[in-house]
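Before relying on records like the one below, remember that each one covers exactly one chain. Contacts with other chains, cofactors or solvent are not represented anywhere in the record.
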Amino acid sequence: MTTNAIASTTIECQASLAGQTVVVIGGSAGIGLETARKARAEGADIILTGRNADTLRQAADELGAQSTSAFDATDPAALDRFFEGLPNVIDHVMVTAGRPYYAPLADLNRDLAHRDFDEHQWLAISVAQHAVCRVRAGGTLLFMGGTGGRARGAGLSLVAAATAALPALIANLAVEIAPVRVNVIAAGFVDTPLSAELLGDQLDARREQLRARLPIGRVVGPADVAALAVHLMTNTAVTGATFDIDGGQQLIAK
């Protein structure tokens, strides 16, 4: 067998999640559920969490999940209990819990702003603290960020700060908890139930606008993000990086 053939075989072996355990925090719908579905198709055992026990149960039944846990990931005690109940060694953790908080400066609510910080920056820190003892060397922590906060405008102050902070946090965590790998996916508009909830009756107009203007000629869906997430789990050369997935949304005028 040639050197190139050996290298190719090695890469193919790394591209499978067979026998690995993937934990998805926020895995009962949208990007989290689609990533769990993709990882399951790649042979992984799946552990799902979510806030809604009924929705979580439906997702677990569909996927044949190994286990589920319904709780609020921003509750430190609940997060502690969840990690304490996991197997001694897991392979990958993806966090999709949380939602963006948009508000003009005059209307910024301190409690909601703190909640937003808890759902993004602080949750990433808490998961990383737990991962040191649970995630195997070379395994992955994967977090969701966004690209929308790179724009400037009324109502984006808090989102802009969070958008800038998360990649810096993830890059440092990748050094601090190595050899566990840590990355962030920064998404633009993704056609999920959360987007539908946030946009309401403006959803169809937003879809049509993006189909007409995005360089890819279509709307980004959960399966697109899931494919990237599984790639980052299996590509052991990647850590401390932010990967944009927005169909070219940042390249066009608003």
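The radius of gyration is 18 Å.
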